[in-house]
UniProtKB/TrEMBL annotation:
It comes from Cinchona calisaya. It is a multi-pass membrane protein. The keyword Transmembrane helix applies. GO terms for cellular component: membrane. The lineage of its organism: Eukaryota, Viridiplantae, Streptophyta, Embryophyta, Tracheophyta. It catalyses: phosphate(in) + H(+)(in) = phosphate(out) + H(+)(out). This is Phosphate transporter. Belongs to the major facilitator superfamily. Phosphate:H(+) symporter (TC 2.A.1.9) family. It is found in: Membrane.
Length: 459
């Protein structure tokens, strides 16, 4: 039974772009806004925590977090700083638990609601909400500020919970997995202007033809290479990407974007760090996300990911080789340009596409699970970055930093190579991509770069 004979899938794939599609972007994207708030505010919060709880009166220098505490591997203890850090670790664990669940759900919801012409752009737009995190800086007591900044992250989480509870299940899941055509038609009729016929018998035949599970020979024959590809590329990306974010505040003084800690107050340091992060986001991170949104349906996921990994590798290699030259006040703008370019090509590249591809490559039954496995692999890479690369370079030794940057350039080249394990997905229905449509998966075809062809314009 081909999906081309199923009205429910044809209606979703050919539906014109409607207001609810953009509403779904916002609802699904709010989870990523929360994730961004957590990821990017922690740099400024950690500086305030260091000043507040780790001041050394003998040296009369501003305090800073010990490295193991900075990476939040410090759980035990009842003393004041230990209790604070332990509490923060506890709640960040549950934040990670929630965000970890949100990654695959947001991706799957958007991929299954969107039509096939705009699916990649809409998925990229959901992920681009990571780049719309506001910066707050005020001048009351520093301890109150870090509490307020952390508490503000609860607002998008609450909004996400409320809107998600009011969002119906996707028609693909209801029809293909629950085999309830009538409910799928009713749900889509509530939110989209599409007509869907109840085709119970056809749906039952379609499910029977594609009813294999994740741990099965059929899955590994059809999608084993795809899963290896999405997991390895996300893993390798996050080794470099999280290192970029964790090292920002240490690189800003070299670029002249922040003053030395001893020259400013705690809130002054927080304000300067937030301002520097805003500049990097405005010139590198934010444009990269939205370049992906606007070009993903023209260039395709495959080429964007290849070019992104390649350019990140080149820029990091240059930084590593020429670090002595760049790490001076005289050449700070060269450094800033190279550093900002790595953020641009991370986001107009694998940081966006590693989120998009797992939401498209796999069949409906295991789409969320495979996306979750890919995302979890990425977080494993982030841990290596935090506890491996960061620990290696924590003493600021120039030779170690140069070696670390060359290592990160190498991991990006590995990501470039592993991209050839996935295939292009633009312009195709989810069932064509996954192999549910005709019983033949993309994984059974050669993994050659796809031939470029213009796509239909947005409706």
């Amino acid at each position: 039974m081909s999906s081309k004979n199923l009205d429910v899938l044809n209606a979703l794939d050919s539906a014109r772009t409607q207001l609810y599609h953009f509403k779904a972007i916002v609802i699904a994207g709010m989870g990523f806004f929360t994730d961004a708030s957590d990821l990017f505010c922690i740099s400024t919060v950690s500086k305030l925590l260091g000043r507040r709880y780790y001041f050394d009166p003998t040296s009369n220098k501003p305090g800073k977090l010990p490295h193991i505490v900075k990476n939040f591997g410090y759980w035990s203890g009842l003393g004041c700083p230990r209790a604070v850090m332990g509490t923060l670790c506890f709640f960040r664990f549950w934040l990670g638990f929630g965000i970890g669940g949100d990654y695959p759900l947001s991706a799957t919801i958007m991929s299954e609601y969107a039509n096939k012409r705009t699916r990649g752009a809409f998925l990229a737009a959901v992920f681009a909400m990571q780049g719309v995190d506001p910066i707050f800086s005020t001048e009351p007591e520093a301890d109150y500020v870090r509490r307020i900044v952390l508490m503000l992250g609860a607002l998008p989480a609450l909004l996400t919970y409320y809107w998600r509870m009011k969002m119906p299940e996707t028609a693909r899941y209801t029809a293909l997995i629950e085999v309830n055509a009538k409910q799928a038609a009713a749900d889509m009729g509530r939110v989209l202007d599409v007509e869907i016929q109840a085709e119970q018998e056809k749906l039952a035949q379609f499910k029977a033809a594609n009813d294999y599970k994740l741990l099965s020979t059929e899955f590994f024959q059809c999608h084993g290479l795809h899963l290896i590809g999405t997991m390895t590329t996300w893993f390798l990306l996050d080794i470099a990407f999280y290192n970029q974010n964790l090292t920002q505040k240490g690189i800003f003084p070299t670029m002249g974007l922040t003053s030395s800690a001893s020259a400013v107050s705690a809130l002054g340091e927080m304000f300067e760090t937030a301002r520097a992060m805003f500049i990097i986001a405005l010139l590198g991170t934010f444009p990269g996300y939205w370049f992906t949104v606007f070009f993903i349906e023209k260039i395709g996921r495959f080429y964007i990911q290849l070019v992104g990994f390649l350019m990140m590798s080149i820029f990091m290699l240059i930084i590593g080789v020429k670090y002595d030259y760049l790490n001076t006040k005289e050449h700070k703008w060269y450094f800033a340009t190279l550093y900002g370019s790595t953020f641009f090509f991370a986001n107009f590249g694998p940081n966006s596409t590693t989120f998009v591809l797992p939401a498209e490559l796999f069949l409906t039954r295991v789409r969320s699970t495979c996306h979750a496995l890919s995302a979890a692999s990425g977080k494993a890479g982030a841990m290596i970055s935090a506890f491996g690369v960061q620990n290696y370079t924590q003493d600021g030794d120039v030779n170690k930093i140069k070696k670390a940057m060359m290592f990160l350039a190498f991991t990006n080249m590995l990501g470039f190579c592993c991209t050839f394990l996935v295939t292009e997905t633009k312009g195709k229905s989810l069932e064509e991509i996954s192999g549910e449509d005709a019983g033949k998966s993309e994984a059974e075809m050669t993994h050659k770069p796809p031939t470029y062809r213009p796509e239909a314009s947005w409706e």
